[in-house]
Amino acid sequence: MDIATIVGIVAGCAVITVLILMGGDFRMFYDIHAIIIIFGGSTASTLIRFPLKEIIHGVPMGAKYAFSIRSTTQRELVDELAGLAEIVRKQGPIGLESVQTDDSFLAKGIRYVADGYDAEFIRDNLERDRDNFLTHLDEGQKIYRAYGDCAPAFGMIGTLLGMVQMFSNMSDPSKLGPFMAVALLATLYGALVANLFCLPLADKLHVKLLEEEISRTLIIDGILMMRDSKSPALVREMLLAYLPEKHRHDEGEAAAAPA
After folding, report:
1. Domain span at residue 3?
2. Which of 33-42, 111-120, 175-184 has the lowest mean pLDDT?
3. Per-position DSSP letters for 57-116, written without gaps between them
4. Is the pTM of this model over 0.85?
């Protein structure tokens, strides 16, 4: 579970709630017309921008990965792949049949090596799997960003509609308040939806996409070197190139430390 995403959303909602309660109550900030224009309009615009199949794939995957975190870090992947290379070096590919891992992508690569598939088959299948996953994750990022872009725009549309309705009914003072509420709350709702939810989630998904691309490419290279029975030291040294400079030194020191 990605605690930062949850804490950020909860903290943002708490700030807005406190400010509302300091100056009144929630009834002052509720208007069904503003809700319709923001969520209805933004949803309609997003449906026009993207094919339905991309929305069906992208929205749930985006929601899942914005609130989740990899079970295995890149540093741990380097250690795990070096350990697997040690098993292959000593026992051959058959030694991988009893290996268990929490990473489903790594597990697939291990199974391919254990079953004796050639390197070209392994590379093609794992790269296709990685690219399909990243494509769907990128779709989710784009959809959340598009929704975040639409919400403030429809907030402005709601404001303009409310202003037109208000000025068209200047002779009836009882209608001025509701129309003014639509005008102001539509802008408020649009800003909140965009800046507290959709755009931050899109940015978080972009970070997760880059992380997954590096991690899965690291796994592919490690699996191929393992399949070719490269030494564990070489596997570790080659995969350290994927890590940030500081982490490379940490890994190198850990590897060089006496048992």
Report:
1. 1-29
2. 175-184
3. HHHHHHHHHHS---SS-HHHHHHHHHHHHHHHHHH-GGGGGG---S-HHHHHHHHHHHTT
4. no
Half-sphere exposure of 54 (CA within 13 A, CB side): 17
- Residue 127 near residue 240, CB atoms below 8 Å: no
Number of domains in the chain: 2
Is residue 99 domain-resident?
no
- List the Cα angle 218/255/216 in 5-degree steps: 10
Average pLDDT over every residue of 196-200: 93
The CA-to-CA distance between both ends of the chain, in Å, stands at: 33
92: left (phi over 0), alpha (psi -120 to 50) or beta: left
pLDDT digits (tens, 9 = 90+) for 148-175: 999 999 999 989 988 888 888 787 777 7
Domain shared by 42 and 159, yes or no: yes
Q: Is residue 95 part of a domain?
A: no
For 129, the token pair is 């799997």
